[in-house]
Design goal:
three-stranded mixed beta sheet; 34% strand; Hpr(Ser) kinase/phosphatase; P-loop_NTPase; globular; three-stranded antiparallel beta sheet; 104 residues
Length: 104
């Protein structure tokens, strides 16, 4: 959020498919809250429901320097997938990806 992103949800996300798109929203009881370790629960203006445009898998490292375009299917919707375990540059790369897209 410090880089300009908005909060959908922290820790739990409600997902559903609507009109061929995967949508994400916060459960009502945690909407507008985000945990900051060592600081506490902070308020943030929530957004959503909002389309999911990218999935980042933090459990798998990216083996390729210039990876192929990957996708994952969730609730019948195909979403671009990025692998990102141990990628120190990931937050900066994702910000640019979301701003300008990925060249095929």
């Amino acid at each position: 959020m410090a880089f300009g992103a908005a909060l959908v949800a922290d820790d739990q996300v409600l997902l559903n498919a609507a009109e061929g798109r995967l949508m994400a929203a916060a459960p009502p009881r945690i909407a507008g809250m985000i945990e900051a370790r060592g600081v506490g629960l902070l308020r943030a203006t929530p957004v959503g429901p909002i389309p999911v445009v990218l999935v980042v898998d933090l459990s798998r490292p990216e083996p390729d320097r210039l990876p192929p375009s990957r996708q994952i299917e969730l609730f019948g919707c195909r979403i671009p997938l990025v692998l990102g375990r141990d990628a120190d540059h990931l937050s900066y790369a994702l910000l640019q990806y979301l701003k300008e897209g990925r060249r095929a």
